[in-house]
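Why do we bother with a discrete structure alphabet at all? Because it lets us treat a fold like text: something you can write down, compare, and reason about line by line. To make this less abstract, here is a complete entry for undecaprenyl-diphosphate phosphatase. Read it the way you would read a sentence in a foreign language you are learning: slowly, and without expecting to understand everything at once.
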Amino acid sequence: MTSLFQQIISNLKFAQLRQELAVSKRLFILNFQSKKLLSLLHTAIVFIAISAILFASNGYHTGFQTINNVSGYLPESLLQIITFLGDSTVALALMLFFARKNPATLWVVFVAAIIGMMISHGMKDYFAMLRPASVLASTEFYIIGKPVYLGSFPSGHSLTIFVFVATLMYFSSRKQTQLWLLLFGMTISLSRVLVGAHWPIDILIGSALGLISTVLAVTICQRFTIGFNLVIHLLLLTLLFAAGLSLFQHDGGYPLAADFAKLLAWFTLFVVIKDYGLNNVITKTLASTHLLHKMHKIKRNN
């Protein structure tokens, strides 16, 4: 038992992870991408400008019915899964897929999430805007999943997914990948209107705030690099891992996404095992168990 425990500890490769964090820190500082940050800010400005045009044209609720009516042509299960991807627990779990390959993404997302959370909750409390379920009769629009009535502005799901998307866009070197990430974020944000949870202006401002939060986070992380400390990094990984495991019981109010959530939970568990060396221990242990079983079977036959 002690030998197995020692094997597990040695296979975690903390020394190697420390070196990876040091390299990631140097690359992050030396590779400061000011043009990408400007591009993210420009995208945020476009979202804000569109929301201003919508508000000026016909008020806060402009465009809701037009977009929401599209839900009648789409499978409800698909809409629930898509909008569930904007859940903060899901976004945290998804970061496990990138944490070992590029530890800097984890530190940036963490700081951006804190900034975004403070802005979002502050604005929700200050503006206290009503959601569609509080304004419209249930027969007037499509509502999918558990109805929510308060805290419409801005959209927290949109902010969350754009923190995730903007972080990956910043670290991506391919324009095509950046474009796909942007479309991915826009699709999930749009789903908030399709499921009847938000007005179009909510998702536009939420998306813009996610982009702005990420720009601020990158700038802050350039100066404060404590996130590359081994202990801090492992604490953040533990947080992500806990988020991933919680998906076994968490559907974000969208029951048709429950099976997808469980599948994602298994994937995050697999990624942690694969990326942090435990797979070697498990493989060796299973092989040893199989060999002992074969030896016992041979002895029994003899």
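What the structure line is telling us, in plain words: The chain is about 75% helix and 0% strand. The chain has a mean pLDDT of 88.
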